[in-house]
Design a protein that fits this description.
With 613 residues, this protein is of the alpha/beta class. The protein is built from 26 helices and 15 strands. The strands form three sheets. Strands 2, 3, 4, 5, 6, 7 and 8 form a seven-stranded mixed sheet that branches. The chain has a six-stranded mixed sheet with strand order 10-15-12-11-14-13. A hairpin with a 5-residue loop joins strand 13 and strand 14. The chain is globular, with a radius of gyration of 30 Å.
């Protein structure tokens, strides 16, 4: 074990990205730059207990000719102890199992609370995965520190039996693990297990520590100082030890073995749509055609339309485009839940956005706007030359929208329907606030700083701190005047600006799938009645899943309440459907738009008064 190895052969096997929320300052662009600087063409990713950001990182790393090796850090519960491991996907089978494991971890209430998964549950999904004990976080180190070699060997043999590939992870990034590293490495080699280096990376550069300190302390106020593992968690730390570590050639041979086992490019896109079926018994194209024609005839009769030829020609054209683009099922799904709402006295909006430009939407009752009458262009909604998913946003009265979502859940299955994850980010103001919560600089100085930053943001939203700290004279001056207070705070804020701060939920988006969502995305239980995806809207649509929008509108709830009050005195009252009432236009011209949906702001009020609609 005395042969030297080239230091460029080292790859960090334990890396947190920015989507390991508030535990890492490693952002995608900076990571790619660092990997290229080191001439590394592989990248291991092992976020803690989740796969947030994995899709985004995978696609961008591949674009930059770097092969991502996808993994997670996982806590495993045995009968009377826990272990911590890193799991990496060797192939598509392994990737699919990571999706299932992450889903199981984050949807089972017991698992989610303890952030652990039972070993017997885990072993149902062990195919296609490499398992590495997670350094000093693993029970392996307990056995070694206590010199319980029988316990160590039995535990290692258990994993060797149940995983295709198992490695012992060793650390050298704390005082304790650095002291024991040589001894444990030699001893484990003699016993016959394979070892690798698992020093955690959660920063790109050493000076990122100030930003990491803010992330950790801001979200965990009881933490007084960073651990050695976090202090030394910058990318180059282990490289500086390689002159010593390189004497243990087997560490690098085993690392390269893992890379060779994980060298398959996993195509995480799906080339076809994975929409749920509106009906298993009917041909969707034929069903849409029949429903559209029936709806058009009904609209013609209701509205006494005489020039029908233009409508039927438009319907034929739209239908052929929709059919060509494979969207017949999409229209039927939206038609179905809108029909359910209307049949169950749930108020539905008349239509919004480009979807009202579609005659078929009008025929199906998805929209109440006649696009032919108002000369609305179908191509604004759907253009065969620009292949992209159309948006049909539907407004529902806010106090009944859950009923519509429950209908969809019951029709297609709870495991095939989910809310969509979004992220809130540390923008300039929130980054500065987070840094102040940790560093607590003088309040007068801090007030002066925020006043300067607020003035800057009047011209530009979320400007780059890197840029404005150089270009803005007042900001540069206060940094130079108070380097140990403002200078430190700005340095930390630069590191965390634009990193994700917390998980949020798409305000209206719901995703539907032909099979269980966990086949395409990890999911979490964030509400009692509906799951939430870990992948974002664009990542789900790229895999062929269907995203629809349910918008809760309090205006519709208010209208419904008012109508019900009127009906107490006038039981036969119905809301007028006249779109050309001159009194309405007079009201708009006079700027009487308080609480009128979408136009109640002062800007719209001035516009309407001046435009003389």
């Amino acid at each position: 074990m005395n042969n030297q190895v080239n230091i460029n052969n080292y790859y960090p096997l334990y890396l947190y990205t920015e989507y390991c929320l508030n535990q890492s300052t490693v952002s995608l662009n900076r990571l790619i730059d660092k990997l290229k600087e080191k001439n590394l063409n592989y990248c291991f990713i092992s976020n803690d207990s989740s796969m947030f950001g994995i899709y985004k990182y995978y696609k961008e790393l591949i674009k930059n000719n770097i092969l991502p090796i996808i993994g997670i850090k996982l806590r495993i519960s045995f009968d009377n102890f826990q272990d911590v491991v890193l799991l990496y996907a060797k192939n598509r089978v392994g990737y699919n199992n990571l999706l299932k494991i992450t889903t199981l971890l984050n949807t089972n209430k017991t698992n989610k609370t303890t952030k652990t998964i039972d070993i017997n549950e885990l072993l149902k999904f062990n195919q296609g995965l490499i398992c590495i004990s997670c350094g000093s976080e693993s029970i392996i180190y307990n056995y070694l520190n206590k010199e319980d070699y029988d316990g160590f060997k039995n535990h290692g043999k258990f994993f060797l039996k149940n995983f295709e590939n198992y490695y012992i992870g060793l650390q050298s990034n704390t005082k304790e693990t650095s002291y024991s590293f040589d001894k444990y490495c030699q001893m484990i080699h003699n016993i016959g297990f394979k070892t690798v280096i698992t020093n955690k990376v959660n920063q790109i550069n050493q000076n990122d520590k100030v930003g990491l300190e803010v992330l950790i302390k801001h979200n965990n106020p009881n933490i007084i100082k960073l651990s050695d593992e976090d202090i030394n968690g910058y990318f180059d730390f282990t490289y500086r030890q390689l002159k010593h570590l390189s004497q243990f050639k087997e560490l690098f041979i085993n690392q390269n073995e893992i890379i060779s086992l994980c060298s398959e490019v996993i195509d995480i896109n799906n080339k076809v749509s994975h929409f749920p079926k509106y009906s298993e018994n009917n041909d969707e194209e034929d069903t849409l055609y029949k429903l559209s024609y029936q709806g058009l005839r009904r609209r013609i009769e209701q509205n006494n339309i005489f020039n029908t030829e233009i409508y039927f020609k438009r319907l034929e054209y739209e239908y052929n485009v929709i059919k060509q683009m494979g969207l017949c099922g999409y229209f039927l799904i939206v038609y179905d839940y809108v029909k359910y709402a209307k049949n169950n006295n749930i108020v539905v909006g008349p239509g919004r956005g480009s979807a009202v430009s579609c005659l078929i939407s009008y025929c199906l009752g998805i929209s109440e706007i006649d696009p032919v009458k108002y000369n609305l262009l179908f191509e604004r909604f759907l253009n065969p030359e620009r292949v992209s998913m159309p948006d049909i946003d539907i407004d529902f009265q806010s106090d009944r929208i859950k009923d519509v979502i429950n209908y969809v859940l019951n029709k297609y299955g709870k495991k095939r329907v989910g809310r969509i994850t979004t992220f809130d980010y540390y923008r300039l103001s929130s980054a500065i606030d987070a840094c102040q919560s940790v560093y607590k600089i003088d309040s007068v100085i801090y007030t002066s700083l925020t006043m300067i930053l607020n003035d800057i943001q009047k011209e530009t939203s979320n400007p780059s701190l890197d840029l404005i700290s150089k270009e803005n004279e007042k900001l540069s001056l206060i940094i130079n005047d108070y380097p140990e207070q403002v200078g430190l705070l700005i340095q930390a804020a630069k590191v965390i600006q634009n990193l994700p701060e917390k998980i949020s939920t798409h305000v209206s988006g719901i995703v539907l799938s032909d099979e269980v969502l966990a086949k395409y995305t990890p999911i979490e239980a964030r509400e009692d009645y509906i799951y939430q995806t870990e992948y974002t809207e664009s990542e789900l649509e790229a895999q062929g899943l269907l995203k629809v929008d349910f918008l809760p509108l309090t205006t519709l709830t208010d209208m419904n309440d008012i109508i019900n009050l009127i009906k107490k005195d006038y039981p036969d009252f119905k809301l007028p459907k006249d779109n050309d009432n001159p009194m309405v236009y007079q009201m708009l011209r006079n700027g009487l738009v308080s609480d009128l949906f979408q136009v109640s702001g002062i800007g719209y009020q001035k516009f309407l008064i001046n435009s003389k609609v």
